[in-house]
């Protein structure tokens, strides 16, 4: 099963960044849940690490909700990734089996190295992009007449 914490957290952060640009910087968990097609309690759970890491600020009381913790151009996608995923590795290794050959003797260590290398590449790519960059990219897609993903045809199967 694919983990959707990062994509959900990124979408929330994009929604908050866009709301701030539009002059309504505070959104409730109900508003965010509607945009994610999720339950508000799931959104509140998703907010916990983002608030803890000061990427999002929680506003209490009537009309409360959440807003960006700092300007969108000062929040990297790498920070959002690390906050939303935590210490969970990109991939979970298979359980160890009997050690009988080259592969079974060393695959666990190889897999750790591969995972570390891949995560470093992912974080490197995400660290160079800010939330503001991502909002600019969404605007460029919109200007180019890009269809929402749900309306695009599925890619042809690969053989």
Q: Can you offer a commentary on this structure?
A:
This protein has 159 residues and is mostly helical. Helix content is 54%, strand content 5%. It has six helices and two strands. The protein has helices at residues 5-21, 29-36, 40-52, 77-85, 102-127, 131-143, and strands at 56-59, 65-68. It has a two-stranded antiparallel ribbon with strand order 1-2. The two termini are 23 Å apart.
SS-based class: mainly alpha
Low-confidence stretches: none
Q: How helix-rich are the residues, as a percent range?
A: 40-55%
* Overall pLDDT level: 88
Distance between the termini: 23 Å
Rg over alpha carbons? 19 Å
Number of strands: 2
Total helical elements: 6
Task: Provide a brief overview of the structure.
With 159 residues, the chain is mostly helical.
Topology:
Layout: H1 5-21, H2 29-36, H3 40-52, E1 56-59, E2 65-68, H4 77-85, H5 102-127, H6 131-143
Helix pairs in contact: 1-4, 1-6, 2-3, 4-5
Keywords:
159 residues; 6 helices; 54% helix; elongated
């Amino acid at each position: 099963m694919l983990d959707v914490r990062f994509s959900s957290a990124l979408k929330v952060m994009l929604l908050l960044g866009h709301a701030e640009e539009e002059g309504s910087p505070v959104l409730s968990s109900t508003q965010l849940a509607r945009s994610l097609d999720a339950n508000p309690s799931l959104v509140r759970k998703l907010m916990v690490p983002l608030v803890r890491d000061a990427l999002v600020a929680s506003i209490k009381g009537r009309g409360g909700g959440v807003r960006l913790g700092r300007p969108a151009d000062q929040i990297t996608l790498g920070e959002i990734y690390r906050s939303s995923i935590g210490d969970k590795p990109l991939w979970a290794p298979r359980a160890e089996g009997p050690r009988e050959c080259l592969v079974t003797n060393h695959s666990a260590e190889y897999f750790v190295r591969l995972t570390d290398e891949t995560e470093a590449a992912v974080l490197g790519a995400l660290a160079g992009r800010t939330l503001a960059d991502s909002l600019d990219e969404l605007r460029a897609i919109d200007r180019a007449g890009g269809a929402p993903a749900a309306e695009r045809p599925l890619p042809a199967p690969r053989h």
